[in-house]
Amino acid sequence: MQAELIDVANYASTTFPEPRPFQVTAHEKLRQGARDGHRCQMVMAPTGAGKSYLGLRIAHEALAKGRRAVFVCDRTTLINQTSAAADSYGLSAHGVIQSQHWRFSPSMPFQIASAQTLARRNWPDADVVIIDEAHTQLSTWVEHMQHCRAAVIGLSATPFSKGLGRLFSNLVNATTMSELTESGVLVPMRVFSCTRANMDGAETAGGEWTDSAAAERGMEIIGDVVSEWIRFGENRKTICFGATIAHCEEICRQFNDAGIMAAVFTSKTSAGEREALLREYRKDDSVLRVLVSVEALAKGFDVPTVGCVIDCRPLRKSLSTAIQMWGRGLRSSPETGKKDCRLLDHSGNILRFAEDFERIFHDGLDALDAGEKLDKAIRRDEDEKEQSKCPVCGYAPFHKRCMACGHERKSASLVEHEAGEMREVMIGKKKLADDRRHLWEQVVTYARGHSAPEKQEWRARYLFKDMTGSFPPRDWRFADTPNAVVTRNVQNQILAKNIAFAKARAA
Known about the structure:
Layout: H1 21-35, E1 40-44, H2 51-64, E2 69-73, H3 77-88, E3 95-97, E4 110-114, H4 115-118, E5 128-131, H5 139-145, E6 151-156, H6 164-167, E7 170-173, H7 177-183, E8 189-193, E9 204-205, E10 208-209, H8 211-219, H9 222-232, E11 238-241, H10 245-257, E12 262-264, H11 271-281, E13 290-293, E14 308-311, H12 319-327, E15 341-345, H13 349-352, H14 354-363, H15 368-374, E16 425-427, E17 430-433, H16 436-450, H17 456-468, H18 488-506
Helix pairs in contact: 8-10, 9-10, 16-17
C-alpha cells in the first residue's frame, strides 16, 4: 500500500485506436440515453463489434473526468484478456479484483473485476459500472445495480435472457452481423451439414434437451466428427463444442488418437493449464489444432485465427448459445489471409435456428423482450422440411432474406452450404520481457498510466535503467513507442522499487 502513496493514476495518455463509425454512433446513443434519464442501458454488439473496446472507452470517459469505473467480467478466462486490452490502450493504471490476482490494487479508480469475486466481497464505489456478457444475469451484479448510484452499461452479443427488460430501460443496437461481414470485420461462414446426432425421443427439461441426453447421443457419432474434420476442416485452427465435460474429453481423445493435437478447455481445467493452452493456441503456427469445450470458450473468447467451429451440442431453444458458439470463428484475420470460417454442423442447430438467425444477422433486435422470446421458442425436428436455397446464390438454409447475398424473397458471401537476435530480459530467474525493446514498451505503458504527463518519459527511462543497468538507446523515442501488456514480473519489480523508495523517503 505504501507504493500507492507515490503512484498516481493518470488517464490523459490513453491511445485508443480510431473508433469505427458505428462505435461512435453507439457511444453517442448511450450519452443521449443518459440525458433522457436511462441509468441502466444495454448495448447489443455482435462478435467483432468491439464490446471490450467500447466498454473501456466508456470507462475512460468517466476516468478522465475524475470519476471511478468498474468493468465486470462474468468468467475468470476474460479477466486477463480485458486487463491486457486496457494495457494496450494506455489504461494500465487499473486494479484487478479476483482471488489472489497479482494485480490487486483496490485504491485505483479503475477496477477490472470478476463477478464471482465480487459476490464474496464488498463492491468498490463507482460512478460507472460496465458489465460484460450481461445476458448472464449473475445475481451479484443484478442485485447491486438495482441499489447502486452508478450508471450501468450492459454489453452482450446476445441479450436474449428473460428479465433483461426489467433491468435495463434502453437498448442500443450498435451494429449487425451483416454490416460487420460486409465491412470485412467478420468473415463469411461456410456451413457443412455433417453427420448429425439423432435426437429423436431424447430427454428434455424445460423444453431443452438435457446435457446428458445430448452427450449420450453425441457419443455415437464422435468417429464421424473426427473423420469429417479431416475431410472438411483443412487442418484449420478449430474450436469444438460438446454437450458435457465427459463428451468433450472423449472427442479430444479420439482427435489425439488420430494424430491431431487437441486439448480440453472446461471448468475443470486449472488456471495454470488454461494459461499454457491459450499461450500455445494463440500462436499463428500453433501445433494445438483443436480446443474442445462446453461453455468456457463460447462467450468472449477471441482468437482471430480460428478458422473452423465444430458444433456437437444439439439445442432447440437457446439461439443465443448457438450464436455465441458460431461467433468464435467469425473474426477476420487479415495478417494470416483468413477468408472464411467453416462451421461443421453435427448438431442440426444451423437448420433449427436458420429463420431466426437470419433475422438477427440482418437486423439485430428491436427490443430486449424480442430476444427473450427467441430463447423461449422450441424448434422441433419433426417440423423441419427440406431447406430451400437462395434463388440468386444457392445458399441454404434460406427463408426470406439470404444471409449470403442479401437477396430478399417478393445483396459477397456469408454462407456457402456444402455436405536482429532476441534475448530474454531476466532478473534472477524471472523473465521480464522477450527482449530489451519489449521491456521498454512495458515501462513506457506503465509510466503513461501512472505518472503526470511531464514526468512520464523520465520515469520510463529510469525504470528501464534500474532493471537493465543502462538507459534505453536515444533513438527509442517515448512518443513513438506502442503500449504493451505489463507482465506480472515487471509489475512486481516496479512495485518493489516503489516500496523501497517510499521507505527511504519516510526514513
